[in-house]
């Protein structure tokens, strides 16, 4: 069974999604929505880490080792390290966000 690790970048982008959606929804329901996403993700990747396809947006840039889990209006980008049997949850964004632009903006703000 694969170990699932959440990166600091994942935590930061999840917090951004909570802040954004809480403008229009009760923050408790937004947090529950993301918790449900995380629970579903873990249940699926722990037993089959390669279940989801390569992230299409990143393959357009020549990057093939990141996978994408889409659920309930979100995209969770993750990487699987076969040598250590570890899944690294990297980024959480909404389905409508441009991943490339989001990553550039993130680098400008946090790095």
Can you tell me about this structure?
By secondary structure, the protein is of the alpha+beta class. It has a single domain (3-110), classed as RelE-like (YaeB-like fold). 46% of the residues lie in helices and 24% in strands. It has a four-stranded mixed sheet. Helix 1 (8-21) packs antiparallel against helix 2. The N and C termini lie far apart (33 Å). The model has no long low-confidence stretch (mean pLDDT 92). Keywords: Toxin-antitoxin system. InterPro entries: RelE/ParE_toxin (IPR007712), RelE/ParE_toxin_dom_sf (IPR035093). It comes from Vibrio alginolyticus. Pfam families: ParE_toxin (PF05016).
Keywords:
single chain, 111 residues, alpha+beta, YaeB-like fold, 4-stranded mixed β-sheet, 4 helices, 4 strands
CATH second-level architecture: 2-Layer Sandwich
Strand order within the widest beta sheet: 1-4-3-2
| Helix/sheet category | alpha+beta
First-last Cα distance: 33 Å
Strand tally: 4
Tell me the radius of gyration. Answer: 14 Å
- CATH superfamily heading: RelE-like
Largest sheet: 4 strands, mixed
Name the CATH class.
Alpha Beta
As for the CATH topology, it is YaeB-like fold
Organism: Vibrio alginolyticus
Pfam family, one: ParE_toxin
Protein name: Type II toxin-antitoxin system RelE/ParE family toxin
Keywords: Toxin-antitoxin system
């Amino acid at each position: 069974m694969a170990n699932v690790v959440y990166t600091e970048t994942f935590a930061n982008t999840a917090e951004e999604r909570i802040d954004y959606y809480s403008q229009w929804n009760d923050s408790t329901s937004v947090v529950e929505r993301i918790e449900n996403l995380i629970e579903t993700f873990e249940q699926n990747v722990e037993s089959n880490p390669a279940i989801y396809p390569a992230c299409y947006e990143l393959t357009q840039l020549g990057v093939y080792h990141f996978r994408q889990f889409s659920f309930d209006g979100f995209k969770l980008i993750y990487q699987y390290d076969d040598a250590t049997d570890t899944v690294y949850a990297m980024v959480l964004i909404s389905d409508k966000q441009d991943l490339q632009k989001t990553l550039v903006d993130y680098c400008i703000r946090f790095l």
